[in-house]
Amino acid sequence: MQMLRDLTVKPAEAVTVAVSRQRDPAAAVAEIASAISAADPSFVLLFVPNTLDRAALAGALAEQPFAPAVYGCTSAGQITPAGYENDALIALAFRRSRFRVASALIRPLRPVHIGEIVRQAEGLAARFPATPGRRRLALVFADGLSQQEDLVVAALEAGFQDIPVFGGSAGDGLAFEKTFVLHGGAFHEDAAVLVLLDTDLSFRGLGFDHFQPTTKRMVVTRAVPEKRLVLELNGAPAAQEYARLVGVPAHELSPIVFAENPVLVRNGSAYHVRAIQGIAEGGGLTFLSAIDDGLLLTLGSGKEIIRTLGAGLGVRDERGFPPDLILGFDCYLRKLEIEHKGLGEDASEQFRTHRVVGFNTYGEQHLGVHVNQTFVGIAFFRPEEGPAL
After folding, report:
1. What is the Cβ-side half-sphere exposure of residue 75, based on CA atoms within 13 angstroms?
2. How remote is the C-alpha of 4 from its chain's centroid?
3. Bridging pattern class, strands 229-233 and 186-188
4. Residue 185: closest CA among 54, 95, 89
5. 81-95 pLDDT, tens per residue?
């Protein structure tokens, strides 16, 4: 068991973190449950490796008293108190004294029913009206292969209005076969979990990447938007044209090439990553975010990833204090690039230093926008004094 108390910093005041590396689901759940038993959680977030049997895990969870209030998803990797991992089950127990929670299961996602999602968000927001001294935020975990996250997060933004929304898309290691969200004691495909938090803690949302635009641009000249599939760029086969702009032979395109050479979309003065998932049959490119005919894309160039990671995580509250804990959603492509460059331990050290826990995603949700190759997180700060309730 690896917990925050194993570190040289104090355990988080408001969230108890537990990790199990047991390969047997029942043993893993028992280990997690023992570690969080004294936390008196209002809810538990659970991020699951694709190496654990989901049915057995759900059965073991059903025997736990906190089972009705467990939310989460399968992952493409985990961020534990030790740093990056691939096969760990991580649980975050949010203390009842600091957090109130309401949740909803959004299903199905194909097709997306925007009006219904707006109504669900409005209904959750009404559960916890704006109150002096308390703050609200929402988390969303969506099926990472649904290809609907863009519409879902836009609908949530409309429904919640002034409540910020953060989240990550469920993963499946690097298999890209099936992804699931966890709600009501069961794993669900073609679904999203929506969790509204009401807390007395101050928090700050984070969202950053390490790319800057180059002068190399491309226009989507033929696409299948509902499949996030680009068939042609600049009038040429998409994979071939992308390879030409990157400067590698088309047959050498790989996840590492895509991770280190993303395409960017401009939104006002900011650029967002539209990550490439892979090469489709016939030489097209599949993406992890919305894509459409006529979209102007810019090839991105990476800055030093560990330096930008440390700078992005180095937040402070108004008193100058670091976070009690950062809940992080980190794109699997960032992890892939970091490990390819031999920087995995450097990244893990940054996570340990800045008290980050969370999971690797197939996409990130940040303030109404679905993005890729981005670190999204929420930094929770310790209260000045006294219990919440």
Report:
1. 31
2. 21
3. unpaired
4. 54
5. 999 999 999 999 999
